[in-house]
Design goal:
- By secondary structure, this protein is an alpha+beta fold.
- The C terminus is likely disordered.
Length: 148
């Protein structure tokens, strides 16, 4: 199920992230990774988005950022790209800025959101291509939908 939401990710703190990791039985992260995730939360806070429930329904996945919030989301996406495991622009703002300006930037990962980090403002029964127009999208999510 997809939802229209306002992201409330400003609540992220190290304690919040540790509690979330404990819920999921995950191991501790390096200190720099906690700070990156906190900064990501600050950058996403207040943005309008389309989210979907994760497979097990415990978390949400960020699918689309509202077109009017694209520029506000730019820094969040750059921060997400600094992740040591999947970042494509690690310490490479120049190429990120070039691709963003050209409209060719597409993340190849999913940003996970805790249930406490979203304010659902509506349910979306079916997302059409017209609904997606202008949104920053996650190509992995679209590819999965096309394969169904």
């Amino acid at each position: 199920m997809a939802y229209e939401a306002i992201l409330r990710t400003g609540i992220r703190s190290k304690d919040f992230l540790l509690s979330w990791a404990a819920e999921e039985n995950l191991t501790a992260l390096p200190e720099a990774e906690y700070q990156r995730r906190i900064n990501l939360g600050k950058s996403l806070h207040g943005l309008r988005a389309v989210i979907t429930e994760e497979l097990l329904g415990k978390e949400f996945c960020l699918c689309y950022i509202h077109p009017e919030d694209k520029e506000k989301a730019k820094e969040a996406y750059y921060i997400a790209e600094q992740a040591p495991y999947f970042g494509s622009y690690i310490n490479n703002r120049k190429d990120f800025e070039r691709d963003w300006a050209a409209g060719t930037y597409e993340p190849d990962y999913t940003i996970k959101l805790h249930r406490k980090e979203v304010q659902i403002i509506g349910k979306i029964e079916h997302v059409t291509e017209e609904d997606q127009e202008g949104y920053i999208d996650n190509p992995l999510e679209i590819q999965e939908e096309e394969n169904e």
